[in-house]
Amino acid sequence: MTSSRLVRALPAAIAAVLALAGGQAVAAPAPDAAARVVTYDAAGAAEFKDAVTKGAAVWNQSVKNVQLKPVASGQRANLRVVADNGWPRAQVTALGSGTIYFGRQAVDEGHNTVRIAAHEMGHILGLPDVKPGPCSSLMSGASAGTSCTNANPNAAEKAEVEDAFALLEKSSAPTAAYKD
Questions:
Q1: DSSP for 115-161?
Q2: pLDDT tens digit string along 110-146?
Q3: Per-residue model confidence as pLDDT tens digits over 61-94
């Protein structure tokens, strides 16, 4: 087909496509939004650095709206992890940021270090404790007992994190001004 015949046929082809689409232009589906990155600094985690890395990997494999990544050198992290002799706890300053105190007391009692890390990261990601709770619930924490080594969030916990970060993404979308 010569270029002049192609140019003449183009309007008819567009009209046919529009007729098939009900007279409306059809856009391709938008690709998934990029995951929100929460950086973490495990420099103060002492002997628990490996557990922190594994806990972050658990969340990274479990959800898509947020990903936990080690902070780059010279950058400020959203999340700091510090080892201490108390009970594990999280101080949340905002969704996706705060400090985890990786307490040795729970480890000394026999609790699984990766479960502790993933549980405390769950708080940073917006999840509350679920106590008492079964081992199948990551957020049941210590109430599941020392024999519980499950470090994976259940479906409801995953969905709650996904929803929280989807809302965060929507609320931080740029605003627009329209002038008539």
A1: HHHHHHHHHHTTPPP-SS--TT-GGGGGGG-TT----S--HHHHHHH
A2: 999 999 999 999 999 999 999 999 999 999 999 999 9
A3: 999 999 999 999 999 999 999 999 999 999 999 9
* pTM of the predicted protein model: 0.77
Q: Is 104 left (phi over 0), alpha (psi -120 to 50) or beta?
A: alpha
In angstroms, the CA 64 to CA 82 distance is 26
Distance CA 45, CA 17 (A): 60
CA angle in degrees (0–180, nearest 5) for 166-169-175: 140
> Structure tokens of 142?
């210590």
In this predicted structure, what is the pLDDT of residue 168?
A: 74
The sign of the dihedral angle between the CA atoms of 154, 155, 160, 162 is positive
Give which of 173, 134, 178 is closest to 156, Cα–Cα: 134
User: CA–CA separation, 134 vs 138, rounded Å?
Assistant: 8
Catalytic position from the list 47, 109, 120, 160: 120
Q: Residues for the chain: how many in total?
A: 180
- What the block records as the tokens of 136 is 């199948």
Is 120 considered catalytic here? yes
d(CA 162, CA 32): 13
CA pair distance 58, 95, nearest whole angstrom: 18
